[in-house]
Structures
1.
Amino acid sequence: MSSPSPFVRPGWVPQVPPGSRILVTGATGGLGRALVAMLLEGPDCVIGAHGAGTVFDSEDRRVLPLRRPFAGEADCIAVVEDFRLRAGGLDALVCLSGGLHFSGHWKDMPEALWEKDIDVNLNQPFFLARAAMAAMKVQGSGGRILLNGTESALHGGSAMSFPYAIAKRGTECLVQGLAREGAADGILVNGVRFGYIASGFHQRWHAKTAAQMAERAQLVPLKRGGDPAEAAALMIWLLSDWSRFVTGQMVALTGGDWL
Ligand SMILES: NC(=O)c1ccc[n+]([C@@H]2O[C@H](COP(=O)([O-])OP(=O)(O)OC[C@H]3O[C@@H](n4cnc5c(N)ncnc54)[C@H](OP(=O)(O)O)[C@@H]3O)[C@@H](O)[C@H]2O)c1
């Protein structure tokens, strides 16, 4: 007799398993806020909402605001450990922290800004994921790790986002290597390769105007930027039992961009 299907339940929607303890870095960003909001609509869970300079403002008792700028591996380990101890364990890490530090052509980029791009978009996900996987292995109940990438990285980025794209392409390699390492312990590692999502990211890092945003949206086959809630829905699917046979994959959310 097979066990009951995890899909047959009221509402027929992907949800994180009840009681999940989920650390979200970049929770203060556009995509992070959308994810936390959607998680709070689902079953009871504990959410570590991490921001670098911003404190995640929430009165919901399920949200543990964590703020700590990352300056290296020790900070990444400290955030994972802080959350794990406060939440009583760690079932999932969602790494959404990221940024772009230079708006000019890469030929003119100062070394310090190259390093910042690589640090937040590649070094940090590596150190965060490594710390999370080590904690999940000791805990012994499996887990989920979700990283992020960008569709433009598959095409060499643009002149203005070349180092960022290199770092994001690196996270795709992380997803594959970590998935191989985690599989024996039931730790599934995946990523979302975002296209153009209207999360505030482009205004924040590249000071894009409304007119530039509208022009960019016209390049997307579906003629719009993605909604952060659409990104949250995909991430929740990847954290739910609906995706329990999926690991080592980057799932594209692009509206057909770059086709
Ligand atoms: N939106 C898109 O179209 C798109 C496309 C491809 C990939 N992505 C990726 O998706 C992720 C989330 O994007 P988003 O749209 O939500 O961006 P966002 O609104 O700019 O949010 C960025 C988040 O990263 C945090 N952060 C920035 N620098 C950090 C640092 N040095 N250390 C730790 N945390 C840092 C920010 O914290 P504070 O607010 O506290 O500074 C914020 O929570 C990013 O990694 C981004 O690269 C987005």
2.
Amino acid sequence: MSSYPIVEHFYSLQGEGYWAGRAAYFIRLGGCDIGCSWCDTQYSWPLEGWKNHTPETILSWIRPTPARHVVITGGEPTLHPLGPLIRALQEEGLFVQLETSGAYPPPEHLPDWITFSPKRFRPPHPAYYEVAHELKVVIHAPSDLQWAETQRNLCKSNPVAFLQPEAYEPNALNWVLPYIQENPIWRLSLQLHRYIGIP
Ligand code: SF4
């Protein structure tokens, strides 16, 4: 039976991107080898040492809550074979959002929504350009804007496109705002959870 290394799980609000503001149950899986300098979940990087849980156990956490939307995040969740977990959540009637850098191939059973957040220093698997619902690029330096544009042009799935200023770079908002005004196909993503103090 499939089981997954769970770092933490909690019912909160999605803070970023297209579904920002929506109540969501978060499932954070262990393991990430991408190494973003701005990562705010570095504690999730180890692949080993977490307690593994089956989809049925994970459902038993969600069922007592009013959650209708589940976010599978990490770490980099696609390090794990997510198909059985996604299928079990969907069979429960839950809307399943996957947050991924795209470094590894998409799950064999697709979720309802893929938030694709490619990283410049780790080229994504090309399959995400076909299946992403949402493209979210973190802007860490002015040259990232051009790279974000390249990524958007590669996407054939016509995703909703977000630029997210890197939270630890004080100038990032000043680069992103005028760029969005000049290129209104992009939207602004802020990490709302940081502002309102929720996980
Ligand atoms: S891909 Fe996500 S979890 Fe991994 S280092 Fe980057 S921000 Fe952190």
3.
Amino acid sequence: MKQILWFRRDLRITDSAILHFAKDEVLPIFIFDKNILNKLSRDDKRVTFIYQSVLNLKKELKSIGLDLAIFHSSPKEVFESLKNEGFENILCSIDFDDYAKKRDEQIAQIIPIQTFTDSFITHPNDCLKADGTPYKVFTPYYKNLSFIWDSHKLIELDRNENLKLISFDYEKVPTLEELGFKAQKLVDFLQKSADELIKEFALKIDNYKVDRDFFDKNATSTLAVHLRFGLISPREAFNKIKKLRSGTENKEFFIRELFWREFYNYILYHFPRSEFENLNGINVNWNEDETVFQKWCEGKTGVPIIDAAMRHFNQTGTMHNRLRMIVSSYLTKNLLVNWKKGERYFASKLLDYEASSNIGSWQWAASTGADSVPYFRIFNPYLQSAKFDKEAVFIKSVLKELKDVEPKKIHSENGVQSNIFLDYPSQIVSIEFSRKRAIDEFKRANNEKN
Ligand SMILES: Cc1cc2nc3c(=O)[nH]c(=O)nc-3n(C[C@H](O)[C@H](O)[C@H](O)COP(=O)(O)OP(=O)(O)OC[C@H]3O[C@@H](n4cnc5c(N)ncnc54)[C@H](O)[C@@H]3O)c2cc1C
């Protein structure tokens, strides 16, 4: 029996469904998908990271007597070329975003596909209400899954040791330049393995629940990118955290966060239109002024915490969770810009970009989602920065021009602008005015829906 093992977002050899379920003769492959790559800029940091991870996977596969054929093409072309080579099927892990679903439907017409839920702990159909419909709110969904998150260890999949490598041209490996990209400098934590990150996190997990919101504290696991590309399976991450000898409360809190990732995948699966539409069906009259959106993207809104977060994001491709909440609230509420624009902008740069988490989180911030904040709860960016960056350490590390400004001024509206010698943009909108405008508009939209 001949099978193709198509590695996509599961770039690992431990706890791998495809290496577990494969039967006999295998051709492991990775495709640098031209349909995706052609839309990215030449300096996309994620491609450097994926490229390194694919070469590493090839090395690991070789260490267990296998190898990895690497293509730079479209999946359709690759499988058309393999169609008459006698393969029984293709094994791969499943993805539920629109592009992935259409791609897999197309490929299944060429060679049958067998998919596995290997990037998430649960399959979205594993957790339904008594009447068979999906949950829309996180807490009851999570409670329903207590039999999973309460357990000490999830089953990990061992490797079939008897696989035989099909002979193929494994030597041809395109360079990053041949793929059309320039090597990028990556943030430090991406040079580390998932195991190393978990070891470092183990030293600080006891403060996770309290410290995780302070963006100058580096108190979170930074595992999101590794989870995104499957350098560690979520089951293995779960088991490793459960095994730590630290207090249960913080561990439980971390596991709960992991299930937010599950929940958003669940929502995208059951409500696929949420990729394109307001999930709660309201019709908001968004602000179409493009210059306002551009100022947000460039970090020139005149609100120090927003500008620092966005400029840091543009430089590194990373953003702390609390900052993501603040900038998404500011864009969708204070600036009243459609969440889809923010979602697309994050998607274009975020190293840990995960369609389901990103779409779900943006809809949450915009109060248009499944389990949303009420529309009248709007973050005040100045109160947020005063609370979570009291000494303005993070803000000053990015906005060097504010290095001599008192933190109190940075945390008050127009405080920085009151210093006429500073070259700092004026605020696009006043916080109070824009807050009221958003509440009025969301109230109208919600009333008209009901
Ligand atoms: C507007 C917005 C957009 C976001 N877009 C993404 C995205 O594209 N990809 C992504 O992985 N996360 C996204 N998040 C969630 C969250 O910001 C990141 O998962 C987190 O910052 C990653 O850092 P960490 O690994 O140190 O997290 P930790 O605090 O260490 O959490 C551990 C893991 O749990 C998961 N997780 C934690 N919080 C969330 C959450 N709120 N939603 C979903 N999963 C969560 C992640 O996989 C994370 O790695 C978004 C949040 C917001 C508000």
4.
Amino acid sequence: MALPALVLLALVAFAAALLWAPHAGRPAALHLILAVGAMPLIFGAMSHFIPVLTRTRIATSGLLGLPVLALAGGALAVGALSLPELFWGRHAGALLALAAASALLVWSRRRRAGMLGRPHPCLAWYDAALACLALALLAILASAIWPQQTIALYRLHLHLNTLGFVGLTAVSTLAVLLPTVAGRPDPQVGPRLRRDLPWALAGTLLAAVGSAWFGPLAWIGGALWAVPLLRLGASWLRLYRAEILALHGAAPLLAAALAGLALSMILGAVAPITVAPLTAAGWFRPTEPALAFVSGFMLPLVSGAASQLLPVWLRPGVQSSWHAKLRDSLGRYGGVRAALFCLGGIAAGTGHEWGLLLGAFTLIWFLLQAGGALLQAFVFQKRKWS
Ligand code: HEM
Ligand code: HEM
């Protein structure tokens, strides 16, 4: 039950943060989404998938300590970013989350060493993602030692986390998940993941270092990241167009997430250009890549993945009609939600606050629908058994 609880925590944190955002400072609201909601969920999901990728036994319940440690770090970060007197919490929070990330990375490497044969290529993406998170948290700790570099280190932190930790995890998971959702495997997924990791990882590192110290490097990084995104997007449109353009199901949400990630990268890459004279002259609103990232990418990603995975996570083992039925109810009108999340992401990313509200509304719709579906699934189960 740990994973469904982490999913619920993430979705509630997302909705709370979107509604709280106009009142709280922006870094605090963003961290409620990213560090309290997403980080522990990603840890939980990785500890579920890593044994599958390495064909080793499932994780023991002791490993649940890591998402909880990461959650404590994230909560401290939100506290520290909303209350000036808790400034020390930035570094303490980073230290806790760093301990959790390092432990999960060590565990993953041990599983890799203990397995027979080659692991699924997704594993290398997860390891790279965890390494990016660890570096991003070290950047926060380093800002205590080199305060004169604080702005550069914060930029390093934010790009390593969004493009690296969340981006690498999400793109590799999406590549594997969409064919499962569609029920038609794509034999190219493995080779493509293997080929694309160097592009995505080099893109992340160049964007992070470049945004901190030397702008032109960052754009080279953005161009490198475009390669895996375009390759994945093109193969999806070729193989899964019908599922992606459907009214129901998880596929439209997963595709919307990929589009939202691409959008936030485009906005991130043009932000430094649009900020200066044109926005001052009132031609453009300043772009908001972080808000596009949250409402155009994280919301469809987590709600889409939850529609597909909650049934398995609630009842692992043999898949029955119970799972299929619950998955259908969770995915009902997924296509409409995907379109609303896209619209919200574009609006929020181009500086319109209603985009966040539209995202929050669509997410609450999903939460209510999921509540109803779960209630029905468990009542249905009881009736069948009694
Ligand atoms: C416990 C862990 C974390 C700590 C202590 C932490 C700390 C910080 C700090 C101190 C800043 C600078 C805020 C400012 O401008 O005053 C920051 C910015 C940022 N961090 Fe984190 N962070 C953590 C985890 C994360 C995670 C997991 C993510 C993403 C997955 C993330 C994404 C960001 C982003 C996007 C910004 C820029 C915020 C903005 O534009 O306002 N952080 N973080
Ligand atoms: C891969 C594409 C990206 C490139 C090439 C890129 C490039 C850059 C550069 C060069 C800067 C420094 C701006 C300056 O000197 O004024 C910057 C800052 C920034 N980027 Fe990105 N970025 C990318 C993706 C993202 C994404 C996905 C996000 C959000 C999640 C993001 C959020 C930000 C923010 C909030 C700042 C301002 C940090 C500050 O306040 O100093 N960027 N980016």
